[in-house]
Amino acid sequence: MSCFCFLCLLLFTTADKNKLTKKILDVKWIGSTNFWRSKLMKYLKQFLIILIISFIGEILKEILPLPIPASIYGMVILFVCLLTKVIKLEDVRETGKFLIEIMPVMFIPAGVGLMSSWNVLRPLILPVGIITVVTVFTVMAVSGRISQAIIRAGQKNEESAGTIDE
């Protein structure tokens, strides 16, 4: 049942809302199984690709003695496969967008776990809070500086290209 709900959520959250509403109102479309079959198979294929890469990340975590989470291995493998065109972006795009859309839901179990272990975390709240605040501002500052450097480099390239064209 949960798999069915997941697939329905997948189909309805990523589809174009206006087209989907028009097609639902069209009675002939309701009986069209080819649409559902092709859409379902496309999403299942994309999800399977992501799961296989995640599984390879899990295997690497067990094999390699490094303290790196399996999800990081999986993301790096997917990134390298996308860069080298082993996997085309179209092969994982829609499912990736869906997973990003439902990402906040994935944090609920972690939040519940934190609340259930509050007694253990209470003495650590001040150091963790300070570290979190310092880290947030450090990431903001570094990201801002890097963004500014990239924008300036792009503007310099546009200016130099503009003088060549004239």
Automatic annotation (TrEMBL):
It is found in: Cell membrane. Pfam families: LrgA. The chain crosses the membrane at residues 68-86, 98-118, 124-142. GO terms for cellular component: plasma membrane. The keyword Transmembrane helix applies. Keywords: Cell membrane, Membrane, Transmembrane, Transmembrane helix. It is a multi-pass membrane protein. InterPro entries: LrgA/CidA. The keyword Zinc-finger does not apply. PANTHER family: HOLIN-LIKE PROTEIN CIDA, HOLIN-LIKE PROTEIN CIDA-RELATED. This is LrgA family protein. The lineage of its organism: Bacteria, Bacillati, Bacillota, Clostridia, Eubacteriales.
